[in-house]
Design brief:
It is built from five helices and no strands. It is an all-alpha fold.
Amino acid sequence: MFKIKSADGSNNLSGKTIARIRKEKGLSQRKLAIKMQLLGFDVDHYFIRRVENGTRFVTDIDLVIFSRALEVPISELLSEKDAAL
């Protein structure tokens, strides 16, 4: 199966942006996972780490929950600012 990756080999374009926003908001990966759990999304801090370091693909459902937990629009998570295209 052919898989498309970003220029830096990442499996997603939003991981670096999610990491940046999370840090700007003063959240650890564990605290972000807890916020996502409170929204009904069963994740742990390892999930957050895999998204941020690009080893995990990100679904549209993931983006919606990240958007809600980080209190930013989905479009900000898809910003090309942090993405290596």
